Amino acid sequence: MKRITLMTVLSILYSQSAQVQIFHNSPSPTVDVYVDASLALEDFEYRTSTALIDLPINAEVGIAPADGDIIATFPFELEENGKYVVAASGIVGDEATPFNLIASTLEEEAADDVSFALKVMHGVTDAPAVDIYADGNLLVENLAYGEFQGYLQVPVGDYTLDITAHGSLEPVASFSAPLSTYGGVSGVVYASGFLAPSGDQPSFGLLLNTPSGYVVELPAAESALTSAKVQIVHNSPYPTVDIYVDGAMALEGVAYRASTGLLDLPLDAEVGIAPTGDDVIATFPFQLEDDGTYVVMATGIVGDEDYPFDLLASSLDQAAADDESFALKVMHGVTDAPSVDIYADGNILVENLAYGEFQGYIQVPVGNYTLDITGHGSTESVASFSAPLSTYGGVSGVVYASGFLNPAADDSAFTLILTTPSGYVVELPAAETALAIEDKELNPNRFGLMQNYPNPFNPVTTISYNIEFGSIVNIAVYDLLGNLVKELVNGYNSAGYNSTTWNATNQAGEDVSSGIYLYKMQIGESNQFKRMILMK
After folding, report:
1. Is the pLDDT assigned to residue 319 strictly greater than 80?
2. I want to staple 251 with a disulfide (CB 3.0 to 4.6 A). Which of 207, 243, 446, 476 is the partner?
3. Cα-only R_g, the chain
4. Cα gap 228→326, rounded to integer Å
5. Domains of the chain (ranges plus CATH)?
6. How far apart are the first and last CA of the chain?
7. What pTM was estimated for this model as a whole?
8. What's phi and psi for 436, nearest 5 deg?
9. Is residue 242 within 8 Å of 264, Cβ to Cβ?
């Protein structure tokens, strides 16, 4: 009754006044509140609130430990008949986040009976700037300690609120907000306590406070956040860019041919691209799978009708199948190049890859390779590169073709770039071709094992071979560990050209998995090996 009497008296005394609600959000002991040196609130407890009280428009509010002397005063200049919320925040005696009274405007009701007018205040001294998600959708962004978020008209309903560090989708805390009965009402949600409390310090929590003085702590809940991991690669011959996600800047100053690490993105995201420091010039909606991993390639040319700027997405593997392999994905990002074949040490690796296409992952044995790029169907190399992959066991990466095959004076030349999920980027150095220039005429007087065709294949491929004399021939398929998968030929063959097929099954007739396989032809003491790729 003492508090009510004091506040009633103060209300009568103030001829020019504003209405103020005070919320005690400083983890300090119970306090007394003074207005112009007169006791206004006695024994005001942590995480409690007043209703709306009248204060003079020019007031000095003092705070004292209960039954103690005033330790801090704060002048306020308020608008006549204005309505405000004042949060006691910070820590008494702390230099970094000292005790303070922080004011913001207050609305007494929502816009309509099917909405809840929500204001949010960040009052946790040891927490960074935060984002707040409601049922997985961004609600409040980049709210720093001591800041209020302006009122949001939220449809009534029950929500899960996830709190994350700004720019992250990893929740630091999650709470249930049952607002289905709050139609037409307004309230302030305070972040309170400590993110990493010590001793008897209060832990992090969210408290809902309405203008009536009602306060409730929101209960903890399971997170409602779902996300995917995305690596973004800048392969458009364009200046440095800024990248936006759902209208908010996510990355600033991304250079041409640079790559991010894996970023957490919401499943329904709109990615925007802007020249650094300028407005967004293009936006692209993405619908991703929960816990999926993707690579997104910025490609094409801004303003070009034939090859417009675009963002192209493909699945991303974070590791190879084993420590003896490198998981390779290839992307054709050169606008003036035709469909290409790629050879590794003279063996076909990727066939008929067109501009804008990704080749699915190939498990390549670790080693150092020469990669030759040819027009599809040709064995004449247009560019050759060294790919030193001997130290990449267990790793995955995307090799993308970049630049121009016929660059103008200030354009970038054709090259291959390797990027890994960590964001590591390296340009592969030029090399001498590994493609042999041979007589193309058929030579039945030579012992030889041909490259299978098609390659990659699914599920049947043909293996051709020629022998100089009639002989006992053995042709078998092996996995990368040298284990026999299937014997294809074992018997006498006449001299000349021969062929056999493999249908991607093992000796037991069971289907085998995608990957790189070896096939070997043995005649007497002589043998030859080649590699082939099964891609399902």
Report:
1. yes
2. 243
3. 34
4. 23
5. 2-105 (2.60.40), 115-217 (2.60.40), 227-315 (2.60.40.2890), 325-427 (2.60.40), 448-534 (2.60.40.4070)
6. 78
7. 0.59
8. -75, 140
9. no
